[in-house]
């Protein structure tokens, strides 16, 4: 009976990470290594043909002692260096992945969403167009700025004010002589208007 597939151990992940990083470190010199190996083989073949086996073996031994062996030592040190760094790199990547997953979760979004005390806004008799657009978007009217949804609500309210489809208490104009978002609305009229359009105002009802 075959058991469930087990995840690789942390030691194996560290080893695999060190090998991968070492290969990546050396990937830019791979072509030169291949060309050098081909040249070395061809040179060995020619040396064997012209100077004989004994001298060829001596030449290869010399190359191995003063070129290949130091290169192997350097590669070993590079591997050990990445092996030493691998645990921290794996831990960092795991923490980063977990942090991103948490940040994308609905629960985290709910936590980040600022809590607004709507009870206060229920008792106000008037709202400006800007304040009521934030209320419809369920965003704190005192937070400043505004989302795309709020700007769209403001455009619709200004349009309906200009078309006499939304009553107001005090109309204010901007520098261009158009209805401003500072125009004051009566709470009851604003609530009627919102319900007429099917907008959710249960949080201040």
List the helices and strands and how they pair.
Elements: H1 10-26, H2 30-51, H3 53-104, H4 106-112, H5 118-122, E1 126-128, H6 129-136, H7 148-162, E2 184-186, H8 187-196
Antiparallel strand pairs: 1-2
Structural write-up:
There is one protein chain. The protein is an all-alpha fold and 205 residues long. Helix content is 66%, strand content 3%. It contains eight helices and two strands, in the order αααααβααβα. It has helices at residues 10-26, 30-51, 53-104, 106-112, 118-122, 129-136, 148-162, 187-196; strands at 126-128, 184-186. The chain has a two-stranded antiparallel ribbon with strand order 1-2. Helix 2 (30-51) runs antiparallel to helix 3 and helix 6 (129-136) crosses helix 7 (148-162). It is rod-shaped and about 110 Å long.
